Structure formats: structure tokens, C-alpha cells
Amino acid sequence: MKNFLDFGLLVLLLVICLLLIINTSVEAQDLAQNSLRSGSSDLLKEIVVTATRTSQDMSKVTSSVSVLNREEIEQIPAQNALDLLRNMPGITVGNVRGEYGSSSNNRTIIRGMGSSGTLGRVLILVDGMLAVSPDTGIFEWNSIDVDTIERIEVLRGPSSALYGSNAMGGVINIITRKPDQDGFQTKVTSKFGSYNLKNGAVYHTGVVGHFNYTVSVGYREADGFNVLPRHAPIATSNVTYARNDASEKIESKLVNLKAGYKLDDSFDINVDYSFNDYKNTGRFRIPNYNLYSMRKHSFSVQLRKKFGDVDSILNFRTETAETDYDTASGMRNGNDSPNQTLSYFVELVNTMNLGANNIFTFGLSGSYGKLDRQYHYFLVNRYRSKGGEQSNLAAFLQDQISLWDGKIQIVPGMRFDYWLTEGYDQDTYIKTNPGQINYPREIDKSFTGKIGVNINPWNNLVIFRTNFGQAYRVANLNDRYGGSASTATGNNITLTKPNPYLKPEKSLTLDFGVEINPLDILSISLTGYQTEAKNFITTINGPPEPPYVLVREKVNMDRVRIKGLEASVKLFPTNYLSFFAEGEINDSKITAGPSKGYHLTDTPESKFSIGATFSDPNLFTLRVSALRMGKIWVDQDPNHVEGDSWVGDLRLSRRVDFDKFWIEPFVEMSNITGRKELRYSSYSRLPINTFYGGLSIGF
Q1: Cis peptide upstream of residue 233 (ω within 30 degrees of 0)
Q2: Could you read off the pLDDT of 149-191 as tens digits, one per residue?
Q3: Among 95, 339, 464, 666, which is 20 to 30 Å from 480 by CA?
Q4: Mean pLDDT in residue range 85-114
Q5: Is 690:673 a contact under the CB 8 Å cutoff?
Q6: What is the pLDDT of residue 242?
Q7: pLDDT for the residue 171
Q8: Strands 267-281 and 197-208
Q9: pLDDT of residue 492
Q10: pLDDT at residue 283, as a whole number
């Protein structure tokens, strides 16, 4: 694997140098070219920014990118932001509780990356800024209101050369809305539905001269949904363990405040603050039992300034979060685990035109994350405190090269990252005079490169894309110093142990795709990919450590091979009607070591979705879709397989406009299936056959 990665890196550097030499010659011959050729297909005029950090037509990008715009978001029956991604190609959503739980256990998997018991192999951005938790590397999807989202861009494939750690499978960039016209606008929405759901939200924007602002407030409460399958073992003295119960509740409060000021055409500033308070209580009939709670504050500032030919963006984001988990043993608390995290992120991105054929991007970034986690083991009178800090400094550069009248786009890029990680562990059975272990500092360095090519010889009729790139993921604070403890049955506890000495995961991916647009109303794409990875972090069973029944620990696996095929068809026969079909097959296996030949867990071997939307402003809007998940391996036992099922979604709405306001009643149905329960694994399932009704009013 090392020789494979080193050889790939050498080839990549040679190709980059050669392309720069070629481009210098071409530019000297054609300095008169003033602009790149634009695509003629309406389907390819969508502007994306995530693939290169610059505004670019979909027809010009070298990477595999999908986009959800605001119009589509309003048509999808999404109960939270994560639901918006479920039908997109190449993405698996592990939304185990849906509307009725937090996203602490939810994940996104792109091209097999994000599976095998480890979170954080897909990078989540909000307005281009790092938004994942420093302890797990995941994003709290319930912390953003769907009403505040303008668009979502999904970049599939390794993206560490531009975005650093976590971007192994790809990048999801959530771009929030900004007021688009002068004056004031308000939208009020209320929704009711299954499990006694009550959901209310207010979205208000205003524009006064050069100043704009947005206020979004949301509240949700419902009976909780038990993630455990009904066939799971029931604790001997807790009759509600594996069943829904009226005592279980969720409650969520969400506030978002945004303000922007545009000084002139070359300078603007945007400030954003978000607050989310979530509680899930009452699963067990135990006083003061807290299944999960989370209180999070985030604050960001974005400055955009143009200095002559250089466009500069300065991003700053900070986030604090407090979470708490309880476990039960019999009729009392077995374990309480409060956590505190703190993170900072700062980045400077500069873009400049080097002649007519080059767009050069370079920048610096830095991040800092801190985790403090406590464990109170009531059954054994034990107290434990663990945590750590992780810092990163990085520099990156990229060149977008246009050749032969814009028919060929070549995008080489590279990035260097320096990581510093340290942690501690103090443990005592008597809660007095605790000893503390300070782990030695771990230094990780990573140089990653990528090159992408887009060939568009026939004005969007056929577009070829290929990418060859590296990716990596540094073990996060939870992998190194976190761990967890949970109740099995009776007074026994399962312990998941971290590993302070984990090596960074590394991968090398080659993909090749073709997009065919025979008509402006039809688009067909097909992409194949293969990834070779090493040091994959996973969890394996270890020797028992009394009083624990099962001990699981984090380790690096030897080698992993992931290969697959993605396909997409979009058809727009009329202005009111559209169809889509998305599909993926994926083969993710361990190729070396004791687990050689086994599948990676949590990744379906296939995924297929179809859907249609009819939207006539004089009649109604109807969207229907169906999703089929293939087999999903729960663990290394070939008999432990879940998935292999269909679900469907539906949303019907009718907007009526009046002189000064509009109203829109709607109904939604989610996870429509004939099965009694829909499981993503042996320990998680989705709520099925859920129904919602609501009303939106705008003025």
C-alpha cells in the first residue's frame, strides 16, 4: 500500500509540473481569450463553489458534484436537514431516529467512506466553514433549520487536497439563505404528526439599504422513538426498554440570527449565530433519566474583500457544545457521561486570475478542538475524566487551467497539514486523590495531492470527468481519548476503549465518469471509482475486563478496497414535471489482516431511488419518491445482514396567493413501507409509516 501511495503521489506531481509547462505555452499563444466558453444546456448552468472554492458552471467541474437548490428543498418531505440527502447518488444516510431523535448517532457515508463503526469520514461545511464536532467529526443535523438552507452541494470523492482531514469520502457544503430583495419577508410554519409531533417555526428576513438580516426560530416536541428494534433483548427489570412509551419525550429549541452589510461591490461582511437546545428523556422509568441532551452555540464571521485581481475570503467560526448521555441498569442509572467540546476554525482563501486561462487559489487555515468527558459509574462507585486537544495548521494551493477554448479543464491541487494532539486520563474508584495520565504529544503530518480533468469537446453533449487523488483522516479526539460505556443486561456494562496511538487513515482514489446531455431536458451520468485505503480505524472485540461483559477497542485495520458505480438520470419533459432515477452499487471489503475478505459494516451493497415532481402554481405541488437499500452488513458475521428493503416518501402542497400574504397547506408521508420495522443495523431502526400535516403562511 505504501508503494502504491508513494508511486501515485510521484505521478501526480509530475503531471502537475507538465500541465503547468503546457499551459504556459498555450497561454502565450492565446492571450486574447477573455472568457471561458459557457455551456448551453440549462441543466448545466447551475453554479457550484465547493469543488474548487470558486464559482463555476456544473459543466466545467472535474469532480462528481450534486446540488439541491431551494426549490427542490421546499418540495422534499424532509423532517430534518439530513433527510434532504437520502435520495442523492453515492450517499447513504444513517438517520436512525429520523424526526424523533438527535443526530448524535446519525451519519453520512459517501462511496463507502464513513462506515465500519467510525464516524467523520465525510466533511460537513456550513457556508464553506468547518462545522463538524472536534470529538467525533460529525455534524449535528438537527442544529440547522431546513428553512434557512439555500442549497446543498455534495462533492463525491477524495477532497483532502483542498479541505484536509475528514474529506475522505467527500464534502457536503450547506449554504444558507440570504435576503434576495428589499423590504421584509416572514414565513410561519406549523406541523403536526405521528408520535404526537408538534413543530413550529418562524423565518423572517429584512433588507434596509446595504444592511440585511435573518431571524429563524424553531420549536419541536414529540413522543420519542426508541432506536432499539422490537426484537432486541428486554432488560429484566425495565419493561419499557425495547418499546415506545408515552413517557419518552423529545424537545428541541433552535435559534439562528444572521446579519450582513455590504460596504460596496468589493467588500461585505456576514455574521451568524446559532443556538440549539435538545433533550431526549423518559425512555426508562427511572427518575431524572436523561437519554441524551445537547446544548450548542456557534458563531461565525465571513469577510469578503476584493484587492484588484485578488478575491479574498476570511472565515472564522467557533462552537461550544455540552452533551450528556445516561445508561440504565435495571431500575437505576448505570452511567452518566457529560461532555464539553470547544472548537475554533479560521481560514484565509485567495483567488486570482493568472491570465485568461488560469484561476489560481491559495490559502491558509487553522483549527483547534478540545474535548472533556466525564464518566460516573454508579454501579461500581467509579469516576473517570478523559479528554484532549487537537490543533491543525495547513496551507493549500490549486490551479484551474483552461485549454483549447475551454474544452478542457485541468485542476491540480495540493495541501500540507500539520496536526498536534495530546490528551489525558484520570481514573479512580473512590473519587478522591485521582491519579492522572498525560499521554505524550502525537504529531501527524500529511501532504495530499489531487488532479482532476474535465473534457467537454461537443458543447455539453458529452462530458468526460476523471480524478486521481489522495485523502486522509487524523484520528479524532473521541477515537483517541473518548470511548463509552453502556448497559447490556442486568448490572453488566459494555466498554468501548479509545486508542491514543492511532495512525492517520490514508487512501488513494481513481474515478472516471461520463455525462451525456442529448437534450436540454435530459441528463444522464455514470461514474466508476476505486479506492485503496490503509490504517482504517475500526472497533474490534477485546478480552473481558470485569465488571464489563464486553470490551471493544479502537484499532487500525490493514487495508481496505472500495469500488463502485454511480448512475443518475434526470428528465424535465415540461416546465411542471420532472423525473429522476439514481443508483449505486458498492463493494467495500477488507483486503489484508485478520479480517481479510469481510465487508465494511454499515455500507449498503446497492442503493436505488426513483421519483417525480409535479409543480403547477395554479394547481398543486406533488413529489413522490421511493428508495431501496441493498444488503447492509452489521458485523463480520455473514449472517448478520440488514437493509434489503424499500421505503417511500410523499409531499403534497397547494399555495394560494393573496394581495399581501400567501398560505400553503401541506401533507407529508415518510418511510412508507409494509414492513413492521425498518432496520439499518441490529441496534438501530427507522420510524415507519409516519404522517404529517401542516400550514405555512408568508407575508
Answers
A1: no
A2: 999 999 999 999 999 999 999 999 999 998 877 889 999 999 9
A3: 95
A4: 72
A5: no
A6: 40
A7: 95
A8: unpaired
A9: 55
A10: 60
**Lowest mean pLDDT across 178-192, 295-309, 398-412, 651-665:** 178-192
What does the alpha-carbon distance between residue 436 and residue 419 come to, in Å, rounded to a whole number? Answer: 24
The two beta strands, 170-176 and 122-126, are: parallel
Residues 358/23, Cβ–Cβ less than 8 Å: yes
How many C-beta neighbours within 10 Å does residue 92 have? 27
Burial of 436 (0-12, 13-18, 19+ CB in 10 A): exposed
Place of cell 460596496: 264
pLDDT in tens, 463-488: 999 999 999 999 999 889 887 665 54
CA distance 557 to 1: 13
Q: Where are the beta strands (DSSP E) in 265-381?
A: 267-281, 290-307, 310-329, 332-353, 358-377
Residues 535/556, Cβ–Cβ less than 8 Å: yes
Residue spans of alpha helices (H) in 66-206: 70-75, 160-163
34 grid coordinates: 477573455
Tell me if residue 234 falls in helix, strand or coil.
coil
Residue with cell 485549454: 403
Mean pLDDT of 378-395: 84
Rounded to whole angstroms, how far apart are CA atoms 231 and 326?
22
Phi/psi for 455 (5° steps) reads -120, 120
pLDDT tens-digit map of 345-386: 999 999 999 888 899 999 999 999 999 988 777 666 667 788
| Cα Rg of the chain (Å, integer) | 25
* Distance separating alpha carbons of residues 143 and 149, to the nearest angstrom: 12
Handedness of CA 57, 58, 60, 65 (dihedral sign): positive
Q: Buried b vs exposed e over 361-371: b needs ≥16 C-beta within 10 Å?
A: bbbebebbbbb
**Which residue type sits at 7?**
F
Backbone angles phi, psi at 480, to 5 degrees: -85, -40
On whether the CB atoms of residues 35 and 159 are closer than 8 A, the answer is no
pLDDT band at 258 (very low <50, low <70, confident <90, very high): very high
Q: What is the DSSP letter of 417?
A: E
CB 667 within 8 A of CB 693: yes
Residue with cell 409531533: 197
The alpha helices in 220-342, defined as continuous H runs, are none
Contact 310, 276 (CB under 8 A): no
Q: Which residue has the cell 438537527?
A: 142
Amino acid at 255: V
In three-state secondary structure terms, 600 is coil
- How far apart, in whole angstroms, are the C-alpha atoms of residue 691 and residue 670? 7
404, 616, 677 from 455: Cα distances, Å: 10, 37, 46
Give first-to-last CA distance, the chain, whole Å: 60
| Among candidate residues 429, 433, 432, the one with its CA nearest the CA of residue 547 | 429
DSSP bridge pairs for 385: 374, 426
CB 605 within 8 A of CB 563: no
Kindly list the strands in the beta sheet with 170-176, ordered across the sheet, starting from the edge strand earlier in the chain. Answer: 64-68, 149-156, 170-176, 122-126, 129-130
Q: Using CB atoms within 10 A of its CB, is residue 80 exposed (0-12), middle (13-18) or buried (19+)? A: buried
Neighbours of 303 (CB within 10 A): 15
- DSSP class of residue 115 equals -
